[in-house]
Amino acid sequence: MEGLITRSCKLVAGAVLALSLMAGCSNAPDPAQRAINAANRADQAASRAEAASQKAQQAAASSQAAASRVEQAASDAKAAADRAEAIAAKSMASSPRGGRRSYRRHRKAAEAAPAPSDSGGGAAAPPPATP
User: Fold this and answer.
1) DSSP collapsed to 3 states, the chain
2) Ranges of each domain in the chain
3) Would you say 109 and 130 are in contact if contact means Cβ atoms under 8 Å apart?
4) pLDDT for 21-38, tens place per residue?
5) Can you give the pTM of this predicted structure?
């Protein structure tokens, strides 16, 4: 009896093993199917790479345009600074030198004011400014 049970267990185990092998083999794709799947994945990767390349080209063109605008703005700013410097130089050349006018005016006002007395009262008050 013991031999019959051992044989039937071995037979059942063998059948289970055979069924699992058959199920495993049937689920695995054949080499042609694997090649087709790999080709599809490669095609999708190539499409993504091409899209990324186009985006990179667009970004490069955009940054080049921005650099051109910055260069133009810098050129415009330099031209404006040169014009402002020329205007400042022109206005400085046509204006009276320094503050001589106001100095003369204050000197004349000081000469017209009475001389301070030597009473020892400290410094004399400055003359009133005339508008």
Assistant:
1) CHHHHHHHHHHHHHHHHHHHHHHHHHHCCCHHHHHHHHHHHHHHHHHHHHHHHHHHHHHHHHHHHHHHHHHHHHHHHHHHHHHHHHHHHHHHHHCCCCCHHHHHHHHHHHHHCCCCCCCCCCCCCCCCCCC
2) 37-93
3) yes
4) 555 555 666 889 999 999
5) 0.41
